[in-house]
Amino acid sequence: MNKICFGCGAKLQSVDKEKIGYIPENKIDNSSYCMRCFRMIHYGEQVVVNTPKDKKEIVNKINKDNKFVIFLVDFLNINKDIMDFYKSIKKEKILVINKSELIPKHVKKENFRKYIKEEYGINGEIKLKGGTITHGAKSILNYLEKNNIRETYIVGITNAGKSTLINDLIKETNTDVSTITVNNKKNTTIDFIRVKLKNGMTLIDSPGIVFDDFISNDVVDKDIEAITFNMKESETLSIFDNKFYIKVNKPTSLTIYTNVVARKIAHKVFKKELELNNNLKIKDNSDIILKGLGFISIKNETDIETNIDSKYIEVRNSMFGRVYENSSNEWWFS
């Protein structure tokens, strides 16, 4: 039998309950979902599997295939590792930045795109997607139709919003098919899933890309917000329920952008003795990226002591704190 689960792409089987794709034998002919996906869809169960395809295997398959690629990245998870992976895809492609509703209102979208291109050396089209319904999906659909793209891979790290985008495109085209399983746990999509839309276009959902040097976080809040702390000299900030600490040696403001409401998990602490064995020199208007969690925007130059392992950290020019001047003498991010 070669039937696959429409939710995660696993091959359906009725032999072993502990293996992916399981469905009772008496339901296998009439169901489009394995038991895992059925429970996630109808009961909200949070089920994790640890069988992601290797990211090299995924990119090799894509590079051997002559199809267009839509690459999704979460606004909160833009970093060099992901952008390098994006650049390793050699086929025609566009970059889609999800959760773009979190970009501050005063930031012009065109300038945000320019920042991404300059900071990470990205060429080509960048689309922004965000909101609670299908915001941005119509623009992506129009782009595909305008360029006569009939088949496209949907690629991105786990939880980037690939399956949500496919479901949005299904709605935009009024396609009468089941929806892809959407879940905030990693590895929801196990194998490639082909979805034929009503307009004749085919979408290919891919397994989520997994990076080992990302901080694991399965808690995602719906009402995400940024929060700023004005730090005095030698003050320490605790983030993620006292899991991580950041101490500054000069006064500065820290603004936290994360996929968990920062107000719930960040506060100043006044402990005298903390093991902070990682030292960073931070220049004016920089972001400290915590891979997998989000980033912290730092306004003023400061030295930082932290207990966060260096492999989880990237420092970049701030998305929102820098002031640029373009050829038209218009100010960015003012």
Mean of the pLDDT scores? Answer: 80
Fraction in helix: 10-25%
Count of beta strands: 16
Order of helices and strands: HHEHEHEHEHEEEEEEHEEEEEE
- Rg over C-alpha atoms, rounded to the nearest angstrom: 21 Å
As laid out across the biggest beta sheet, the strand order is 3-2-1-4-6-5
Q: How far is it from the N-terminal to the C-terminal residue, by CA? A: 60 Å
Strand content: 15-25%
Number of helices: 7
Shape: globular
Based on secondary structure, the structural category is alpha+beta
* Biggest β-sheet description: 6 strands, mixed
Q: How would you name the oligomeric state of the polypeptide chains in this document?
A: single chain
In terms of per-residue confidence, which ranges show pLDDT below 50 for 5 or more consecutive residues? Answer: 48-52, 180-188, 323-334
Secondary-structure topology with pairs:
Elements: H1 35-43, H2 55-64, E1 68-74, H3 80-88, E2 93-98, H4 109-120, E3 126-128, H5 137-146, E4 151-156, H6 162-172, E5 193-196, E6 202-205, E7 227-231, E8 236-239, E9 244-248, E10 252-258, H7 262-265, E11 266-269, E12 278-282, E13 286-290, E14 294-298, E15 302-306, E16 313-317
Parallel strand pairs: 1-2, 1-4, 2-3, 4-6
Antiparallel strand pairs: 5-6, 7-10, 8-9, 8-11, 9-15, 10-14, 12-15, 13-14, 13-16
